[in-house]
Amino acid sequence: MSDETSTIDDPELGTFARARSELTDGTVLTHDWFVGTISVEGTELELMLEGTASDEVAPLLPRLRDTVKRLPIMKRIATDAVVTNFSTGAPEAHELDDAASDLTIEAIEAAADGTVVLHLIDSCGEHFPEGYWPAVHLGVDDGVVQVTVES
After folding, report:
1. Are 90 and 115 in contact (CB under 8 A)?
2. To which H or E segment does residue 135 belong?
3. How many CB atoms lie within 10 A of CB 54?
4. How far apart are CA 148 and CA 95, in angstroms?
5. pLDDT tens digits for range 81-122
6. How many Å apart are CA 109 and CA 119, to the nearest integer?
7. How far apart are CA 48 and CA 89, in angstroms?
8. Pairing between strand 116-122 and 133-138?
9. What is the side-by-side order of every strand in the sheet holding 43-50?
10. Calpha distance 74→72 (Å, rounded)
């Protein structure tokens, strides 16, 4: 059953509500995830929980909390994965460091299967065309499952 108007209040992560978009004709779309934001070191991060009912997404909160608590480590895993995925050979240390500096996490998505997707943005605009961003999919053990480019 869809839980379109409920919210979830988490003491560490804040409030989550069903994600909605309004089209130019006034139609409101309700998405299959809950969304919230959190400020981490002066940066607002979008947090997403996959599911349509609060009781469905509540079990995802511990995984999301853990990811946010370990954000510097998770970010480095993600940026290293992006460079490694798009390199033709073994990346050099400076390339990994440059990516860690240039790519920033914009959103974290927790899925029902325990995976977490880190959506990154290219803060300098030199690595990805405008309108595209890398996303790193991490398994339940935080190992990289997939690196994608999204738009």
Report:
1. no
2. strand 133-138
3. 16
4. 19
5. 999 999 999 999 999 999 999 999 999 999 999 999 999 999
6. 8
7. 34
8. antiparallel
9. 7-10, 14-22, 28-40, 43-50, 103-110, 116-122, 133-138, 144-150
10. 6
